[in-house]
Design brief:
By secondary structure, this protein is mainly α. It has one domain. It has 7 helices and no strands. Helix 2 packs parallel to helix 7. The N and C termini lie far apart (about 45 Å).
């Protein structure tokens, strides 16, 4: 049974600045456009952070069940090290994705931008598909492209777009 400290390590907190940076840039752009809304910025940040944590747990789970992390050097991997059961790590990923979707839905309701639900679904599918599923794109050399699209363009432009609200 993994300890709380191990679960925190498994969330890979050192990766969280990569989730926050595009939100800060998008919020700064919204501010310059005189459309900054604090609540919307906070919701966008929560969505980004939870998606990042979710993808970290999903990656831990998927690599762990494939055996990719068995001889890993570096930060703790919950499944690969045997600290946590694979199904527990998978449910932690789903929990983070679920919370991200709840905060995202609140943002969609505030902005009345219903089409962003499809963007959110795409984000979760991309997060899972990095190393999960039958043909993970992370193993095909497409990880950087998806990171650029989802944690770059989508996060930055999405944050800016949702700032004015309705």
């Amino acid at each position: 049974m993994a300890t709380a400290a191990q679960w925190i390590q498994g969330a890979r907190l050192r990766t969280l600045p990569a989730a926050i940076a595009p939100v800060l840039i998008g919020t700064a752009a919204a501010y310059e456009l005189q459309s900054f809304r604090l609540l919307n910025a906070i919701l966008a940040a929560l969505v980004a952070l939870l998606l990042q944590i979710g993808v970290n747990y999903a990656n831990d789970y998927s690599d762990g069940i494939r055996g990719t992390d068995e001889d890993r050097v570096g930060p703790l991997r919950l499944v690969g090290s045997g600290a946590a059961r694979p199904d527990h790590v998978k449910w932690a990923a789903f929990g983070a994705f679920g919370l991200a979707m709840i905060f995202g839905l609140v943002l969609v309701i505030i902005t009345q931008s219903w089409w962003l639900i499809l963007v959110g679904i795409g984000c979760v599918l991309a997060a899972w598909g990095y190393t999960g599923g039958k043909n993970p794109y992370g193993y095909l050399g497409l990880g950087d492209l998806f990171v650029f699209v989802f944690f770059g363009l989508v996060a930055t432009l999405g944050t800016t777009y949702t700032q004015p609200g309705k």
